[in-house]
Specification:
This is SgcJ/EcaC family oxidoreductase. The chain has 162 residues and is of the alpha+beta class. It contains four helices and six strands, in the order αααββαββββ.
Length: 162
């Protein structure tokens, strides 16, 4: 290999590294602030529907093949099945409330993973569970939809939990 070939090989290295690393850098940068705001608005819609006991509205927040990955249970797949899951699970009960906090967002402006904490309270305000969740959102047109929803609680509540 002559000196000219060696320099040519080294000249290609930064360009090929930049091209290969571009998708990783775009993902690592995370979604835009407006995307994070839009995802939080979807969380608010979910929480409001839950508070009203409007499980049909909750089902509409998921993609057609959206999936709940519930703790200790089987997958619940599809918007209609998700509606049925919540309807059956809360039949005859006063709706609970849920709040989300400590958000982390990963992804881009088309696909976002959210990691957050949750608090579920009974209709009279008593803490029922404290937990965490991982949600995968997909943008469909101009709307963010839940595609995967996995959650678990932090275990038995302690006497000082409020």
């Amino acid at each position: 290999m002559n000196m000219k070939s060696i320099f040519a090989a080294f000249a290609i290295l930064p360009v090929s590294s930049a091209i290969a690393g571009a998708p990783i850098a775009a993902y690592a940068a995370g979604p835009s602030r407006s995307t994070e705001v839009a995802i939080k608005a979807e969380n608010d819609r979910w929480a409001e529907a839950f508070k009203r006991g409007d499980y049909e509205a909750i089902g509409h927040l998921y993609t057609e093949d959206g999936t709940l990955l519930q703790p200790g249970g089987k997958r619940v797949k599809g918007a209609a099945a998700i509606t049925q899951y919540f309807t059956a699970g809360y039949a005859g009960k006063e709706p609970d409330t849920v709040s989300f906090s400590n958000f982390e967002f990963y992804g881009n402006n088309e696909v976002v993973t959210e990691v957050s904490d949750s608090l579920v309270r009974s209709h009279d305000g008593q803490l029922k569970s404290r937990g965490k969740q991982m949600l995968l959102f997909i943008k469909q047109g101009n709307t963010w939809k839940l595609h995967r929803d996995i959650w678990n609680d932090d275990g038995p509540l302690k006497s000082d939990d409020r």
